[in-house]
Xylanolytic transcriptional activator regulatory domain-containing protein (Penicillium alfredii), 617 residues
Amino acid sequence: MGRRNRTARQLGDRPRSRSNRRDNESAPPSSGDSDDEAPADPVKALGYSPENQTVMLQTAMCIMNPTRSENRHSPLSAAPGNPPKRKRICLKRVMVDFLIGLFLDQVNRVYEMIHPVSFQTRYNAWWESQDRCDLEGNAALTADDEDFGLLVLRICLVSTQYLPHPKYPTTGILESTPKSTQRWLYTLADQVEKSQSPMRRPSLVTIQHRFYHICYLKNSSKIRESWFALSDAVKDAHELGLHLKDPGIPLSELEMELRRRAFWNLYAWDRFMCTYLGRWPLIPEEYCDVELPHDSLQAYFVSPYILTPFTDRLFHIKTARFMSAFMSPPSWKTDQYDPVIVADFAQRLQELIMDQLPPAYQLIGPDTSWDASEPAIVQKRQTLYLMLFGTKTLLYKGFVDPWKILSGDKKMLPPTPPTGLAASHQRTVVESTCRVIEVITELYHLSHSDDTRASERLFLLPVSLVESIATLSMYLLSVQTGERKPLRYIMEISPGTHLRSTYEIFVDAFALLRKQAQRSVIAKRGLKVLEKLHDMLHQASRDSSLLPQGGDTVIATGGFSGVPMAPDKTSQPGFSLESFLAPQAASVVFPEWMPLVGIGDRSWFFDDGPVFDGFSV
């Protein structure tokens, strides 16, 4: 069908300063942990012992060394247009080396924005410039060193979100708890950024540190703030010309590849925000001619086929482009209910993305011969599967409720179930959702232990789990109400159908959500939203072979209103529920958010505070 027209948000002019941030953004957001910890000494949180505290400012929020003049002043009170020259960014190297090592080993695999070899060279040079400033007394950091220092801080911040980690014990490295260290690193990074000259020109390092700020906010469930940070990064990328195939300046292939990776990682998150959260696209695709990353750096292996650390990310980007072309335009609001159009789009997804996967990432029978030597491939594979099955689920989402029962329409229900393509699409969306839950479960298992806080646990996994449970809920309610029979009765008369296995997966997924709610603020919110719905479906589906229950059997219709009945009556031959259930169909009251689940837009979960009694992440 060709490239579909899109509405793009134009990049407006505004000052380079970030003074438009919300007042409360200066406070470091929670990383999603539910633990409450007492504030630690800020100097110790940064790795300083009491005898070294003289290098810090006299304020309790010590951020940086001032110049060695008698007229000392704090950067917190400096005039916005005349920031003080900075000698160095006060950090203890043993702590920073530890967090950078964790990043390169565990975190960088997610986006592969950083080239480890070139980064390590620049990192060592940055420390030398820090030491030189100390020796020369009056020397100040250059703007490039400030930018790189901010990148170091943002990387360290994201690394703290992975702590505790079984491979990275912090004893003797951090002189405070990981959470306290995270808070003070956030404050330090925030103050360094605010003190930068508003007239400075962005560099690739600027884009990188903004991107990892986006990641930190996203992992902290601060989706709105993450979008604001994305806007800043996109404006800098535009000024730097990352969207251009030929930026007009001499660059090495390595520099061009890193620019391409930076741009397309921003693009992928922008399209995620657009497709799933209902935001306007910040990057207008029609104005960008930059090539996709060439995927030619640091190959894992080159025979019998080439696989690099960025290969999986390249397919994430291609999938984001597919969503932008087919599932983001305004026409999708109606096209998603057309079975012929959806079938055509699904065929394109299969041909353009899934059929092109290399053997190590194929959906069926992947090549696992390199998993032992390159453990990152295992997690990359499952994360890519989550993206692909999630996209497939979203593509078919309009058919999870083919009767349109949950759309709020109170008209008479159709007399027959869906047939043909509509019925096939309904089966596909349920199967894809179940595969998503299977992948989520495996990714939680790959996180090594319940105490590990990998970034996927903070955002990607819980939000996908909540959405998948909501989708299965919608399907089960649709079947129950459309058939005018309780789930238990349907499963008893059709024991060979996939309904029973789907309900079992739903129950297991909800148990996983309940467990993760103790560790993730998103899972906690999802539990609050879905718990009542789960209880109602549980009540409607009582069956001794699925869940141990005692007492009377409750027969419920789509409105969740139950009437106790003798346990043996529902199994009697010829027992008719139609006259009993039909009068209640008109009084069905579904959750206020339920119609929104069917359109694939996750903004109902993050933005609609009144629906969730003001509960917010």
Notes: Residues 403 and 435 are 24 Å apart (CA to CA). The mean pLDDT is 75. The first helix runs from residue 42 to 45. Residues 336-532+580-612 form one domain.
